[in-house]
Amino acid sequence: MDDTNTATRMLRDEHVLILQVAGVLDDIMSSAPDPAHLDFDAIEECIAFFRLFADACHHGKEEDLLFPELEAQGLPRDGGPIAVMLYEHQVGRAFVRAMAEAVSGARAGDEAAVDALLENGRGYVDLIRGHIDKEDNVLFNMADNLVVGSPCERLCAEYDVVCARRFEGQTVEELEGIASGLAARYPAAG
Ligand SMILES: [Fe+2]
To answer: What does the domain layout of the chain look like in residue ranges?
Structure first.
């Protein structure tokens, strides 16, 4: 089947990048010789990618465009898979915010900040892997059946408009470059 223009094709492709960066973060956290010698520069790049690409750009398209279209097609917003996905987006935001708050203290050697960074980083990696699995295998399959024809074409055009924006000054291509740079430095991450 040619699925280049389904309601979820672009979002599924973005999931691949998000999982790649989550894998890098997992690798950084589990392979450091000790917590004081984490690769803080790479962790900051992961945080920026999660905040701007995974949340602002990707979750933004889901929350502002795909989910409202699914509601228009009859799926409830306050129950079922959409409600679960919205809740998990909020939990993910909290993990990333906590990582961002902890990273400079961790870099300075504050043990409590290192613990908070690792705890929230692991929480985020676990959450986002499960979350994307649910979207890819449940909600997005529903979306591909529900949103077809002209609503699907309109949705894809609206995705393109979001992707043409800048996120705190960075283009989507630049944010994708963060992911590929991290993957090159951590090739074993998966
Ligand atoms: Fe997603």
So the answer is: 9-185
Between the CA of 107 and the centroid of ligand 1 the distance, in Å, is: 30
Burial class of residue 166 (count of CB atoms within 10 Å of its CB; 0-12, 13-18, 19+): exposed
Q: How many A from CA of 132 to the centre of ligand 1?
A: 6
What spacing in Å lies between the alpha carbon of 33 and ligand 1's midpoint? 33
111-138: pLDDT as tens digits: 999 999 999 999 999 999 999 999 999 9
51 contacts: CB under 8 Å, gap ≥ 6: 96, 100
Distance 8 CA to ligand 1 centre (A): 9
Q: Which CATH number is correct for 9-185, 3.40.190.10, 3.90.1720.10, 3.10.180.10, 1.20.120.520?
A: 1.20.120.520
pTM for this entry: 0.95
Distance 97 CA to ligand 1 centre (A): 18
